[in-house]
Specification:
Blueprint lengths: L5 H15 L4 E6 L6 H9 L4 E6 L10 H7 L11 H10 L10 H15 L5 E6 L6 H12 L6 E7 L12 E4 L5 H9 L7 H10 L4 H12 L11 H13 L4 H13 L4 H9 L9 H5 L3 E3 L4 E3 L2 H10 L2 H14 L6 H11 L5 H16 L3 H14 L3 H17 L3 H18 L49 H18 L3 H15 L4 H16 L3 H13 L8 H13 L6 H10 L9 H9 L3 H18 L5 H14 L3 H18 L2 H18 L2 H11 L12 H14 L3 H9 L10 H5 L1 H10 L3 H18 L2 H14 L2 H11 L5 H17 L3 H18 L2 H13 L18 H11 L4 H8 L3 H15 L15
Parallel strand pairs: 1-4, 1-5, 2-3, 3-4
Antiparallel strand pairs: 6-7
Length: 944
């Protein structure tokens, strides 16, 4: 029976009731030690729902996927039913397969699908205790799955310590447990077996703070005076003292076995007993502890009455005894499947440098890195460095730790590791021309330079542009280490909002490599293009100049990429984007990774349709290959192409998916950028609240404030909102940001040139309008795109008079996209009305209204209707869009894919959902669309 937890039990009952009805949910229960978190999990487990359990184990916090394996082990027979990519990812994570390492989030998707399969015949409850001790790889996968639960009939409950820093779980509902109310505390205390005097009872009720564990465990200790009244301790320490007081009464051999078990952390009894045997203890010695209610065992596993008891046993033992326990455990773990755990016990037993242990830990780190347990790899490399005898080996391991930290997104830690490595490297650097000792790390990031057509050697420090991909690195050695460390620093600086210093490091690395490894230099320079966009034309020209000096053979896949990027940066004529991508693929480029930056550059030269098409292809490849880290930038680029091409609703769907993924992975740059893009879409629709919310989020301090990467799009969004609502002064103020570098040369800086012209003309600032028109005309000539030429013609029309203006308006309608065409017809209609040509004006304004309605551009529709009203023409408000306008973005995305003939499982794999959630959304969408089955979807017009 739980005392005083009626409200908390009701929350759990609601979740389980929803699961029985096919709904899913997740809840994070937070509270201090002993507050009753595990008791609530036990309550949930007793409600008759099929349950799987796992728990974070402190000693396994650096073993990737340890806790996840414990949770999904009961359902592993269903792994064969997963989509092949997910199955391979999960098996590789658990060391059961030989496949390539999978993206961390693909493993999370596999977990989601597996849990949905387990819930096929009824609700499933997943309990994860001590989540603050979960290994990071397990935590990421479980949180990824938990955030996507919807209609599977699965409930996930996490129990963790109070602070959000102990187990960050953004996006999940939380329940904070506080102490019991006085009446509940008194009832729990009085139900105990220990008789208490009124004074002791009052003391416990006062000092326990309503902590249930304290009320259960402290009576015996406080009652016999074991804790000094004059020296009150923090509650957790009091509980540990209480537990340890019970431990000291046990026989010596029993304390020995308990210490080995506490050092082991894991529940498997066999290795504990093997280790204890080396310390003259055995299974019968556990009986006194079991009789005292401190542990439980069935001969196979050992469970502690409470985690604080294990902590009290370990912390209360002498240092020499703890070291001996770890050495004994290392000796007891001899199999290949326990090599990682053995290495950590050796490290825990080490009292100084030990190269054998350092090597074992490095191998552990290598395995963790291959399985995408990057946080574990960082810790293992770092500890291996600390145990290294040879200084060069220590530097090498610190470099590997820094690179792994960069790949994991731990930029602050990566920078600290890089500084340590650089400081040590300067002390051991060899004279010029002398080879550095230390050799190559097993499984490390450096390989022989690739021949044309092969993937180059990689270093995780190359993750600079937010792509999650790796740049090339040269051979090992002092100079090579320094270059690799510079790449680590570049990533940290770029993520920290310092693109200038990041850019300088990238350029330095590329220049250093261009003679010995031009292809490697080219790959770094593709990242430098990205940093340069946030700085200005000078930096872009610098990248282009170095790219032009690279001696790349024509067959090298980097050649068409470098050529396209150079052209886009310098304003030279570039090839069709699709041709450049095809040539790179033919040469053996790593698609999609090597082609991501082509999409961004394609938007600069106005090849929007090609960008949308290529980004769509690369997104499909990412999904097939499980390279989720590349999806956010690609979805952003595709969203831009869709918006500019007149399909804003599809652009919103892609952008929202990109935002979800960026938030899951922690890609701050893309979170800022996509929030700003969504602000622009909201402005187009006239949703001022959403526009401002997204714009403010894009420029939040955590993303760099006014200097955030999404700031330019955010200013453009607020300007578009103001322009649509007729607030010209505010629009002009916001657009002024687009005239200052670096925003001036950004994609959105170029795209707002027509807005700058219109606002300046309306405000009477013809000089500013003429300057913007000159830039727009120059861009049109460089890009050679008809639609840009049409926008330039519209700008000339606004600055012209009489028949010249009309000629320019007519030219502007010759080649345009939906939103641009609608705005041109609106402006032309306004001009015709002022020229007293009412019939012609009505024609243009009615066509503009129809286009604005179809695009859902409410403020612009209203503006066109106002003009028609001035002509004496009454207009009704039309429903915007086709059938898809009735659906939510996710329903729309699922319906489109279902109409293409994809099954629920195929849609789920593509959108990172469970197949049950897909079915749930289709079930809700059918009535809105007026259909009864997916077979009827193909007959609907699902275009915008």
């Amino acid at each position: 029976m739980l005392h005083g937890r009626d409200a908390e039990q009701a929350r759990i009952d609601d979740l389980l009731g929803g699961a029985r009805a096919g709904r899913s949910g997740a809840l994070v229960v937070r509270g201090e030690a002993g507050i009753g978190k595990t008791a609530l999990l036990d309550y949930a487990a007793a409600q008759g729902v099929a349950t799987v359990r796992s728990a974070g184990i402190e000693s396994e916090a650096e073993l990737p996927f340890a806790a996840l394996h414990l949770l999904v082990r009961p359902g592993m027979e269903l792994v064969g039913q997963l989509p092949s990519r997910q199955r391979d990812a999960l098996e590789a994570a658990f060391g059961l397969g030989e496949g390539e390492p999978a993206d961390r989030m693909l493993i999370g998707l596999a977990v989601l699908t597996l849990l949905a399969e387990e819930a096929a015949n009824g609700p499933l409850l997943c309990l994860i205790d001590d989540a603050h001790w979960l290994d990071r790889a397990s935590a990421e996968a479980l949180l990824f799955a938990a955030r996507r639960l919807e209609a599977e009939g699965v409930v996930m409950l996490f129990a963790t310590r109070s602070g959000p820093q102990d187990f960050p779980a953004p996006g999940l509902t939380e329940l904070a447990l506080s102490g019991l109310r006085p009446e509940a505390s008194a009832a729990l205390l009085d139900a105990g077996p220990t008789p208490l005097s009124p004074a002791v009872r009052y003391r416990l009720l006062t000092e326990s703070g309503g902590n249930p564990l304290a009320l259960l465990e402290l009576p015996a200790v406080v009652g016999d005076g074991s804790v000094d009244d004059a020296n009150p301790l923090p509650l957790t320490q009091r509980l540990q003292l209480a537990f340890h007081g019970r431990v000291t009464r046990l026989p010596t051999a029993t304390r020995t076995v308990l210490l080995v078990a506490a050092a082991a952390g894991a529940a498997d009894l066999a290795p504990i007993l093997r280790a204890a045997a080396g310390l003259d203890a055995s299974l019968p010695d556990l009986q006194p502890a079991q009789d005292a209610g401190m542990i439980g065992t069935d001969g196979q596993v050992l469970t502690w009455h409470h985690p604080l008891l294990r902590s009290a046993v370990y912390q209360g033992a002498a240092l020499t005894d703890r070291l001996a326990a770890h050495r004994a455990l290392a000796d007891a773990l001899s199999g290949d499947d326990t090599a990682d755990l053995r290495a950590w016990h050796l490290a825990s037993a080490a009292t100084g440098p030990d190269e054998n242990t350092a090597t074992a830990l490095e191998h552990t780190a290598d395995r963790a890195r291959r399985r995408h347990g990057l946080h574990a790899a960082v810790t293992a490399y770092d500890r291996a460095a600390a145990l290294s005898i040879d200084a060069s080996a220590r530097v090498r391991r610190l470099v590997l730790a820094a690179e792994s930290a960069t790949e994991a997104g731990l930029t602050d830690r990566a920078e600290r590791l890089a500084e340590r490595a650089a400081s040590l490297s300067s002390e051991v650097r060899k004279p010029a021309g002398e080879a550095a000792p230390g050799g190559r790390a097993t499984g490390g990031p450096t390989e022989q330079a690739a021949r044309p057509g092969e993937r180059g050697p990689v270093s995780s420090a190359g993750v600079v542009a937010g792509s999650g991909e790796q740049a090339t690195a040269p051979e090992e050695g002092g100079a090579a280490f320094e270059l690799r460390l510079d790449l680590v620093r570049a990533q940290a600086e770029f993520a920290g909002g310092k693109p200038g210093s990041a850019h300088r490091r990238l350029m330095s690395a590329a220049v250093a490599m261009r003679a010995s490894d031009p292809r490697g230099a080219a790959r770094i320079l593709t990242k430098a293009v990205h940093t340069a966009w946030y700085l200005g034309p000078g930096e872009l020209d610098e990248v282009a100049d170095v790219l032009a000096t690279l001696r790349l053979v024509e067959e090298d896949p980097a050649t068409p990429i470098a050529r396209y990027l150079t052209g886009s940066v310098t304003g030279q004529r570039v090839a069709d984007l699709r041709d450049a991508a095809a040539a790179a693929r033919t040469g053996g480029a790593d698609s999609p990774a090597d082609l991501v930056q082509l999409c961004g550059s394609g938007l600069v030269v106005g090849q929007d349709e090609q960008v949308e098409e290529l980004a769509g292809e690369l997104i499909r490849e990412c999904r097939e290959q499980g390279r989720i880290g590349l999806l956010a930038p690609l979805l952003f680029f595709r969203s831009e192409g869709l918006l500019f091409g007149g399909r804003p609703r599809e652009g919103r769907i892609a952008a929202e998916e990109g935002l979800r993924i960026a938030q899951d992975i922690g890609q701050a740059q893309w979170i800022s950028q996509i929030h700003a893009f969504l602000a622009y879409l909201a402005a187009l629709q006239g949703d001022s609240t959403s526009c401002r919310d997204h714009a403010e989020r894009a420029a939040a301090e955590e993303f760099g404030g006014p200097g955030a990467v999404g700031a330019s799009w955010a200013h453009a969004a607020v300007a578009l909102l103001a322009l649509g609502e007729g607030r010209l002064e505010q629009a002009g103020t916001e657009l002024a940001h687009m005239t200052i570098e670096p925003a001036r040369h950004h994609v959105i800086g170029l795209r707002t040139l027509p807005d700058q012209i219109e606002v300046a003309v309306r405000l009477g600032a013809t000089d500013r309008a003429a300057e913007a028109l000159d830039r727009l005309t120059a861009w049109s000539q460089r890009a050679e795109q008809d639609w840009i030429a049409a926008l330039a013609a519209r700008g000339r029309a606004l600055l012209a008079d009489g028949s010249a203006a009309e000629q320019h308006f007519v030219a502007a309608l010759a080649a345009n996209r939906p939103f641009d065409e609608a705005r041109t017809r609106l402006l032309y209609g306004e001009w015709l009305r002022r020229d007293k040509r009412k019939v012609d004006a009505r024609t243009q304004l009615e066509q503009a209204t129809e286009l604005f309605d179809r695009l859902g551009a409410a403020p612009w529709s209203e503006r066109a209707r106002t003009e028609l009203g001035a002509l004496g023409v009454g207009t009704g408000t039309r429903a915007s869009g086709g059938p898809l306008s009735l659906l939510t973005p996710q329903e729309s995305q699922i319906v489109r894919l279902a109409a293409q003939g994809l099954s629920n499982r195929e849609i789920a794999a593509r959108l990172f959902l469970s197949h049950r959630t897909v079915g749930h959304h289709l079930y809700k969408a059918y009535p809105k669309l007026g259909v009864l089955s997916r077979g009827e979807l193909s007959s609907l017009d699902l275009t915008e």
